[in-house]
Write a structure and sequence with these properties.
alpha/beta; seven-stranded mixed sheet; 12 helices; single chain
């Protein structure tokens, strides 16, 4: 254990953040967009010589000054972050790292879940965490032709409902995974309720929580990937690698995705899934989006209508169950959050 001090960097501490950014830059890393805890290790001159961060139950943005590598400082940073997470009540921890450093984190008690080419490794601190998750899902395995949808449903629209109906019509069983992480304007508990109510008329649909293994574009780490396209491609390839293992355990032969004419990010994502899933024996089927007024129905448009208080226009884009929720007392805090949000359109 060194004598160096580790301190939390306040989000308003511009000078401290500038020092963190400088160190990350020196090591070829940039500060991730999603961080809720940042720490720095300082030497006797109050220079930042090591850093690490957290977001939710993940560890991110590690760097040690080249002048101090080999001194075990990263171990101290990781130990500090794990303690912070435990104090938050986060016992299950995850991280993304470069291929070259996966063994280091393995020695610290993290286990590989999946990897992407020569870009990244996704790891967790439970040896059988992912295996146990897959085993639990496998209990819902059915025979026949089984398909799957993964949706955020922020919130659930007529477009989501149409996609579910189209997919369910082609399957003996359709599994819908609702993204569990709370990184959206509409919280998970409400999103899942909206999905369940919106597909209640489809008897062959089973809804699942995605758990911590299927994450959204909004929180996928980008700090050691070179550009936005690489980030999107890496996320999609990681998603595919994880999904194939889930699908094999659940007898899933097809994954359905909605065509995304208005989202460049999702368009690239769908393309990567179409290219990679078949190698794992999974058909990727892109379904044209349902339209309203000549335009594809989008959750972004729904959020815009909520933000503007345009309930009449909103009614044309969501099922009755979603409209009932949006106009309920339960949804009032969410509506206020959306109204105060600066940008609600995601590309």
């Amino acid at each position: 254990m060194s004598d160096y001090q580790i301190s939390r960097i306040d989000p308003t501490d511009r000078r401290g953040l500038a020092r963190i950014d400088a160190l990350l830059s020196q090591e070829g890393i940039r500060r991730d967009a999603n961080l809720d805890y940042i720490c720095g290790m300082y030497d006797e001159n109050y220079d930042v010589i090591a850093t690490g961060s957290c977001f939710g139950n993940t560890l991110r943005c590690f760097a040690v000054s080249s002048a101090h590598q080999g001194e075990g400082l990263l171990n101290e940073i990781i130990s500090h972050l794990i303690q912070v997470q435990y104090e938050r009540g986060n016992i299950r921890l995850f991280l993304y790292t470069k291929i070259a450093t996966a063994q280091f984190f393995g020695d610290l008690g993290f286990y590989e879940i999946a990897r992407v080419d020569d870009r990244l490794v996704f790891m967790e601190n439970r040896k059988n965490g992912f295996a146990d998750y897959v085993a639990k899902l496998a209990k819902t395995r059915t025979e026949g032709h089984c398909g799957a949808l993964v949706m955020n449903a922020n919130p659930f629209t007529l477009g989501h409902q149409y996609l579910a109906e189209r997919a369910a019509a082609e399957c003996d069983t359709l599994h819908i995974f609702v993204v569990s992480e709370d990184a959206s304007l509409v919280p998970f508990a409400i999103r899942k309720k909206l999905v369940e109510e919106g597909v209640a008329h489809l008897p062959n649909v089973i809804c699942h929580d995605s758990g911590p293994y299927m994450i959204s574009n909004a929180t996928f780490p980008s700090y050691f990937l070179k550009d936005e396209t690489t980030v999107i491609e890496s996320h999609a390839k990681l998603d595919a690698a994880i999904f194939v293992r889930i699908a094999q355990a659940m007898n899933i032969f097809a994954r359905y995705v909605g065509e995304e004419p208005m989202s460049q990010v999702t368009g690239i994502y769908n393309q990567i899934l179409s290219e990679t899933l078949p190698a794992g024996g999974i058909d990727c089927r892109i379904i044209p989006r349902r339209e309203s007024g000549g335009k594809a129905i989008s959750a972004s448009t729904v959020r815009q209508y909520i933000q503007n208080g345009d309930l009449e226009a909103l009614k044309e884009l969501v099922p009755a169950t979603t409209f009932e929720m949006i106009t309920s007392e339960e949804f009032r805090p969410v509506m206020e959050r959306i109204r105060k949000a600066g940008e609600v359109v995601h590309y």
